[in-house]
Specification:
By secondary structure, the chain is of the alpha/beta class. The chain is built from 3 helices and 3 strands; from the N terminus they run αβαβαβ. The mean pLDDT is 56.
Length: 58
């Protein structure tokens, strides 16, 4: 999973779904290349936000 996130982060946006992502101040945008559900991958949200600025939230 983490390697997949690295690849997507290099090439596109990462789409984060969930209340904790919204609480971190992520803004909603229209397009994304990968979906992370906070419910399933909450431990990866901080990692993703540290690595990439192309994170969007639904």
């Amino acid at each position: 999973m983490r390697e997949l996130l690295r690849k997507v982060g290099e090439n596109g946006r990462i789409y984060v779904c969930g209340a904790s992502a919204q609480a971190r101040g992520l803004k909603k945008e229209d397009l994304a290349d990968f979906i992370i559900s906070d419910d399933s991958y909450g431990d990866l949200v901080d990692l993703v936000m540290e690595k990439w600025d192309k994170v969007v939230v639904c």
